[in-house]
Amino acid sequence: MGLFGRMKQVVVGAAVLVGVLAVWSGGEPVLHAQDAKSQAVIEKAFPSSSKCKRCHERVFEEWETSPLSKSIHSPAFRASLDAYLNSSAGKDKAMCFRCHAPHVREFPEQAQLFVDQAKSGDPSLDGVACAQCHLIKQVDRAKHPPEPKYELGSKTLYGPYKDFVQNLAHQSMELGLFQKSDLCLNCHQSVPSAANLGKANDLLGSYEQSQAVKSGKECQSCHMPEQVGESANGEKKRKVANHTFPGRIGKLRQEAAKLDVQTKIDGDKTTVIVKVQSLVPHNLPTTHPAWASVVLDLDIKGKNLKTVFADKRIYGRTYADAKGQKTVFDFEAAKVLEDTVLKPDETRVETFTFPTPKDTKTFDVDVTLNYAPITGPAPFLQRVEAEASKGSQDPVFQAIDIVKRTENIPINK
Ligand code: HEC
Ligand code: HEC
Ligand code: HEC
Ligand code: HEC
Ligand code: HEC
């Protein structure tokens, strides 16, 4: 048998067998054996990325450094998965995995295995890996969010090439979907919330009306930039797609936003006007997880470069749950309280006024736009910290700078 087989029948058989074993023995070791068996069945349908690595080393290494390869690994994911499962919304165990490990869609009866693996902190099951994308044959955009249709049981992997080279492991087929945003939208357009918030909770905003879309760009144009390289080991070089998925990390940052800073001194009063121009064709930030926010920080440094004034603006979305309490979890969101997200291609003008710094001939205006660290109720943050091997040093607790401007302003008396 090749990479793929008659998994549907096998799954049903295995599920029944597994149930019987659990009843008869009830012991831990057998449960492990049974998990291993279920995993083998899942990986027959969705071969592990390590199988692809053998021939697609370049792609594998790029993907391995991307956030996608860690989609069920992060302490924040574990802690919020747990919060979800313990909440009244948390009855559907497969919910989070529909995007974080989408093969769960084909194995709903194995949802607990996905939960256990994620909770272990070191899952051996893939999250969003090669087969999870390259077995998608169609995306149904009539659904909200759009739904992928997997083609299992054949040995065909879909991709961008018409003129693919034949190989012994799988058949290939060109599918236009792989150069279209539709492929990405099934996970990136919206996430389920407690009440149907509809368009008010779309992650990307009015992306379709952006200049980038009007000029024919797709998600891949920016997030899987074209390069020249080997598509499979030893094949001749051709146009390939970067699989590091630059986003918050990577070079794309330089194309995220521009800052224009103007300072006016009027006697004892100084005004700083900051123009924040988003160059992103969708919301900045995209608002899942719900705590995601971008912050504009202003820092005025007077005598001896000491901060004499500081202020900030926060771009994000705040939600209330069904009881009207603020929540950082979109799965329990019933209402959008406030939405200050930077809309596609938007320029936001912010005005700050403060007393002109004293006892100095000049002062510094420091302006930074950054992705903020995680926020939320203290017990949740403590949980994330406890889940993280590096504790409070985990990247989720660090801001990521997007753009920075510093200007030295002379005071003319
Ligand atoms: C099966 C669901 C799924 C599909 C399909 C999908 N993504 Fe994602 N994507 C995710 C998840 C989940 C994450 C977050 C991973 C993490 O950080 O844990 C993510 C993260 C990303 C990031 C990094 C975001 C950041 O904060 O830096 C980028 C960029 C991205 N995806 C782009 C794409 C593009 C482009 C496509 C289409 C070619 C795509 N994704 C298709 C689920 C998906
Ligand atoms: C409809 C698809 C979808 C669903 C359902 C979904 N997510 Fe996500 N999730 C994403 C995408 C896409 C990203 C990357 C977003 C970005 O970087 O802008 C992401 C990112 C995250 C992150 C930040 C990255 C990380 O791994 O630490 C966390 C935490 C997270 N999701 C938790 C959850 C939890 C918990 C659930 C279930 C309650 C859930 N998600 C359900 C698509 C989804
Ligand atoms: C989030 C979805 C997604 C994931 C995960 C993903 N790919 Fe891709 N892959 C794509 C898309 C979309 C294209 C086409 C991009 C284009 O042409 O603009 C592509 C192109 C390719 C190509 C042809 C171009 C090239 O870069 O060589 C190969 C081969 C490939 N992928 C293999 C893999 C392997 C192997 C993995 C896992 C290590 C993987 N992909 C993970 C979406 C994905
Ligand atoms: C025995 C080696 C081998 C293995 C194993 C292998 N591939 Fe390939 N694959 C190739 C070769 C060779 C090509 C043709 C590359 C080209 O035309 O430049 C290819 C092409 C592709 C393409 C492009 C198809 C198209 O028409 O656009 C995708 C996508 C792909 N492979 C994904 C995968 C995934 C996912 C896995 C793991 C499940 C995998 N491959 C395992 C050798 C292999
Ligand atoms: C014209 C280029 C462009 C296109 C097209 C584009 N993006 Fe982005 N995207 C960006 C830039 C620039 C950033 C910000 C990167 C940074 O700050 O480091 C970004 C950031 C992101 C992030 C991470 C930021 C966050 O707030 O979590 C995700 C996820 C993402 N884009 C998904 C998508 C998806 C899905 C599509 C298609 C529907 C898409 N993008 C289309 C340019 C683009």
Biggest beta-sheet profile: 4 strands, antiparallel
Tally the structural domains. 2
- What would the average pLDDT be, to the nearest integer? 91
Report the radius of gyration as a whole number of Å: 25 Å
Number of helices: 12
How far is it from the N-terminal to the C-terminal residue, by CA?
84 Å
Shape: globular
List the strand order in the largest sheet.
10-9-15-16
Low-confidence stretches: 4-29
Secondary-structure-derived class: alpha+beta
> What's the count of strands?
16
Write the element-wise H/E pattern from the N-terminal end onward.
HHHHHHHHEEEEHHHEEEEEEEEEEEHE
Measured as a percent range, the helix fraction is 25-40%
Bound molecules: heme C
Indicate the proportion of strand residues.
Answer: 15-25%
GO molecular function, one term: oxidoreductase activity
Domain Cytochrome c-552/4: 51-134
Protein name: Cytochrome c-552/4 domain-containing protein
Keywords: Signal
Please give a structural write-up.
Keywords: Signal. InterPro entries: Cyt_c-552/4, Multihaem_cyt_sf, Multiheme_Cytochr_ET. With 413 residues, this protein is of the alpha+beta class. Helices cover 26% and strands 25% of the residues. It folds into two domains: 7-191, no CATH class; 251-410, Sandwich (Immunoglobulin-like). The chain has helices spanning 7-25, 28-45, 49-53, 57-65, 75-85, 97-100, 111-120, 130-134, 182-188, 211-214, 219-223, 378-387, and strands at residues 136-140, 147-150, 156-159, 171-174, 226-229, 238-241, 257-266, 269-278, 294-301, 307-315, 317-320, 326-327, 335-339, 347-355, 362-371, 400-410. The radius of gyration is 25 Å and the shape is globular. The chain binds heme C (5 copies). One heme C binds next to helix 3, helix 8, strand 3 and strand 4.
